[in-house]
Amino acid sequence: MPRPIQALIHTEALAHNLGVACARTPDSRVWAVVKANAYGHGLERAFEGLRRADGFALLDLDEAQRLRALDWRGPILLLEGCFDPRDLELCSRLGLWHVVHTAEQIDWLAAHKTNVPHRVFLKMNSGMNRLGFPEAALRSAWARLNALPQVDEISLMTHFSDADGPRGIVHQVQAFARASADLPGERSLANSAAVLRHAADAGLGSAVAADWVRAGIMLYGSAPDAPGGSIHSWGLKPTMTLKSRLIGVQHLQPGDTVGYGSTYTAAQSTRIGIVACGYADGYPRHAPIGTPVLVDGARCSLVGRVSMDMITVDLTPAPQAGFGSEVTLWGCGPRSAVLPIDEVAQAAGTIGYELMCALAPRVPVAVDG
Ligand SMILES: *Cc1c(COP(=O)(O)O)cnc(C)c1O
Question: Does the Cβ of 159 fall within 6 Å of ligand 1?
């Protein structure tokens, strides 16, 4: 028998969450962002649930090739554009749309030999200060691209730094609007947090939703604004379940300790379940005592230190549980119990994004429609 740990990818939930993005931005097209192997879900598996998206946005050229190999003929956008002039050949061959965020990428295009002009997304830096042309350089970059025979349609995009937080997006929407005022072309601004929190605003909403939104984390059953928001409050469903089983039970007496470093001491007689899941599976090593874990669908707490292959949980809330009981580290448990990945991330001082992306290669993954 293999070790009992397993991840499940819920393709029906991916489709549901994509539907939430579409419903919140009914006048926009939706890029399903599938970078980082679809946020750890597996590109091919995620594609099953996301095939009704208007396009797929990603970073790695090999992921673009994998999508074409799945027979996806629609738009694919390289969110960081090309990393090397030779990447343009693949863009021509596979019909990839690509972001242009720096002058070097325009130089490469100008030297590129192709008879298929490229669709590009010219990126403006509206305040994030990572990628993109500053306001003052946007028009000249646009004019340079527009003069190139290698370039077909030019779209405009920018990315928000604070769509999930109190600073918000107004300053960036305004900077983008100012810089791009009389430039033609489609526009794309919103990530998941902007789709959920800002796209329906009475004032700026339509400028935020624009022609294309770029939905990532919301598709994968995590709230970008957790813990303020939750998948429950946004109507999203978990798309990844990490589950395992109890492979042992210990009965502690008062004063007994658990695990490396003896970080937990029993105050009374306590049953402890030993779970076949550790940091080598992608479970966060810094998850503290009290991190929620479902055992037989009942909400229990982690005790002691997370080790490479095991964690230990206090079974007090699950008196019927024993050897072989089902354990849900995050996602969907038995009897409709749900443990949002965001709650585990919050307890461990990280975000849902990091946990799902860090699912370890040794964990077998199955698809659950
Ligand atoms: C990753 C990414 C997104 C998606 O962000 P989420 O917060 O996951 O919705 C959107 N746009 C760009 C440019 C990105 O890199």
Answer: yes
Question: Are residues 129 and 38 part of one domain?
Answer: yes
Q: Quick check: is 170 in a domain?
A: yes
- What is the chain's mean pLDDT, rounded? 97
Dist CA 282 CA 275 (whole Å): 14
Residue pLDDT, tens place only, 104-161: 999 999 999 999 999 999 999 999 999 999 999 999 999 999 999 999 999 999 999 9
Task: Give the three-state DSSP class for 308.
Answer: coil
pLDDT digits (tens, 9 = 90+) for 217-271: 999 999 999 999 999 999 999 999 999 999 999 999 999 999 999 999 999 999 9
Instruction: Kindly name the residue from 113, 220, 237, 260 that is annotated as catalytic.
Output: 260
Number of Cα atoms under 13 Å in the Cβ half of residue 178: 12
Q: Which of 37, 79, 125 for a ligand 1 pocket mutation test, highest count of atoms within 8 Å of Cβ? A: 79
Calculate how far, in angstroms, residue 68's C-alpha sits from the geometric centre of ligand 1.
21
Q: CA–CA separation, 79 vs 87, rounded Å?
A: 13
Query: Catalytic site residue 123?
Result: no
**260 part of a folded domain:** yes
Q: How far is the CA of 216 from the centre of ligand 1 (A)?
A: 6
In a domain, 308, yes or no: yes
DSSP bridge pairs for 156: 122, 187
Q: For residue 262, what is the domain's CATH number?
A: 2.40.37.10
Total tally of structural domains belonging to the chain? 2
**Ligand 1 pocket check for 123: Cβ under 6 Å:** no
Annotated active-site residue 279? The verdict is no
Please tell me whether residues 214 and 340 are part of one structural domain: no
311 C-beta closer than 6 A to ligand 1: no
| Residue whose CA lies nearest to ligand 1 atom number 6 | 216
Report whether residue 101 contacts ligand 1, using a CB cutoff of 6 Å.
no
Which residue range forms the structural domain that includes residue 203?
11-223
Atom in ligand 1 nearest the alpha carbon of residue 33: 4
What distance in Å separates the CA atoms of residue 166 and residue 149, rounded to the nearest whole number?
A: 43
Half-sphere exposure of 5 (CA within 13 A, CB side): 22
